[in-house]
């Protein structure tokens, strides 16, 4: 309880949340990109290769933007959820103490 009292506001800051949740988000997006570019779905791969060069570039840009959005969402959501769980547990313990 003493640790959480001292560090609860520091752990709520956005920069701290990014540094803690970033590895999980990057791992998930890396797995998605490997799956996307591996070519396991032959029909979609043939469709991608039949498009023009500019539409392929725009598709890759959309995939990169989506990957960044997925990483940021995973990072913020997971760390905020974890913080809320710790905060709830802290408040329950403080209520028992009083």
Characterize the structure shown.
The structure is a single chain. With 98 residues, this protein is an all-alpha fold. It has one domain. Helix content is 90%, strand content 0%. The protein starts with a helix and ends with a helix.
Key descriptive features of the protein:
98 residues; mainly alpha; 90% helix; rod-shaped
Proportion of strand residues:
under 5%
Count of domain modules: 1
* Separation, N- and C-terminal Cα atoms: 14 Å
Radius of gyration from the alpha-carbon trace, in angstroms: 21 Å
Can you tell me the residue ranges where pLDDT is under 50 for at least 5 consecutive residues?
A: none
Query: Total strand count, please?
Result: 0
Tell me the series of helices and strands, N- to C-terminal.
Answer: HHHH
Write the SSE topology:
Blueprint lengths: L1 H10 L2 H24 L4 H9 L2 H45 L1
Helix pairs in contact: 1-4, 2-4
Short description:
The protein has helices spanning 2-11, 14-37, 42-50, 53-97.
């Amino acid at each position: 309880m003493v640790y959480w009292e001292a560090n609860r506001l520091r752990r709520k800051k956005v920069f701290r949340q990014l540094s803690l949740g970033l590895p999980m988000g990057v791992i998930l997006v890396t797995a998605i990109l490997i799956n996307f570019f591996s070519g396991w779905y032959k029909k979609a791969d043939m469709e991608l290769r039949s498009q023009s060069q500019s539409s392929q570039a725009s598709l890759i840009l959309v995939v990169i933007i989506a990957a960044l959005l997925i990483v940021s969402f995973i990072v913020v959501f997971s760390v905020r959820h974890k913080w809320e769980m710790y905060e709830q547990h802290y408040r329950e313990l403080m209520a028992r103490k009083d």
